[in-house]
Amino acid sequence: PSIASTMSFAKDQSLAPQGHMNLEIAERRMQALMHVRERFAKEQPFKGLTIGMALHVTKETGVLVRTLRDGGARVAITGCNPLSTQDDVAAALVEKFAIPVFAVRGESTETYYQHLQAVLQTRPLITMDDGADLVREIHKTRRELLEQMIGGTEETTTGIIRLRSMAADGVLEYPIIAVNDAQTKHFFDNRYGTGQSTIDGIIRATNRLLAGSHFVVCGYGWCGRGVAMRARGMGANVIVTEVDPLPALEAVMDGFTVMPISKAARIGDFFCTLTGNINVIRKEHFATMKDGAIVANSGHFNVELDLMSLEKLAKSRRMIRPFTEEF
Fold it and tell me: What is the pLDDT of residues 245-259, one digit of tens each?
């Protein structure tokens, strides 16, 4: 059967026991949401509603999914990034809690969009997005759903940029709550959560030492602040690139070196983009980087890096470690 016609599409149901234990670990650290779940179970605020979600399928999101379901909602979820799905959690949500999940770590772009469509086939009345792909697909390919839409949420800077552009053009046809603008989101999740997880991801993928290196942070928004802070804590010499003069000045006052990416490209050992914009690191920057420079993106979409130009510059490419590609 097609993916869209199946109840769920998770990688391996044998991973479910480990995923269930990971959900338990997350619940112990998410007491506020657990109190909300208790209240939702009694009040049933979402009874009769279908919620379609495109979020990072992680243990923390799994706790949210269960909370919405206990509040009476019918929930279907897909990943918002093929590289962030935790297959054991996806399996647990299907096996232990009978929640439709359409997500596999490392899935292709084609499968990713099939999974978005699978969620939309549940005909949600509310969407929950990380990057605005569900909203985009509804407006582009499933416009018949617009008449029934109550509203949605968006939790990323990148998604908010996309949605505000749609709103400015008069083409956004149902209301979206900008979760990313909540102070608890950008002050804490973006700064401390993204700051730690990005550094953790780079170290796991590369096994490289940060101490003594030149670490270039592109963008000094809340995520950039967090990564710069954590890279400095690991002993790196942090360089910030920022086109907005006010946060650039803040980075100087925070003790970081600030310079244009054209200059930083020549001296950086690590580069990480966190802007929500496109082509932050381009052909001319790749061409001047050191041999062995590590380039990473922590923005929602990898369009922050001009990968097409990098491919054209490269004489060869290969995977030298899991999640680390050499050009």
Answer: 999 999 999 999 999
Q: In three state form, how does the secondary structure of the chain look? A: CCHHHCCCECCCHHHHHHHHHHHHHHHHCCHHHHHHHHHHHHHCCCCCCEEEEEECCCHHHHHHHHHHHHCCCEEEEEECCCCCCCHHHHHHHHHCCCCCEECCCCCCHHHHHHHHHHHHCCCCCEEEECCCHHHHHHHHHCHHHHHHCCEEEECCHHHHHHHHHHHHCCCCCCCEEEHHHCHHHHHHHHHHHHHHHHHHHHHHHHCCCCCCCEEEEECCCHHHHHHHHHHHHCCCEEEEECCCHHHHHHHHHCCCEECCHHHHHHHCCEEEECCCCCCCECHHHHCCCCCCCEEEECCCCHHHECHHHHHHHCCCCEEEECCEEEC
Closest CA to 78 of 94, 100, 97: 100
Predicted TM-score (pTM) of this structure: 0.84
CA 71 – CA 97 distance, rounded (Å):
14
Distance CA 298, CA 294 (A): 13
The Cα 178–Cα 167 span in angstroms is 12
- 203 — alpha (psi -120 to 50), left (phi > 0) or beta? alpha
Residues of the chain under the 70 pLDDT cut: 1-9
Note the pLDDT of residue 3.
40
Cα–Cα distance for residue pair 219/230, rounded to 1 Å: 15
Which pLDDT score, from 0 to 100, does residue 301 have? Answer: 84
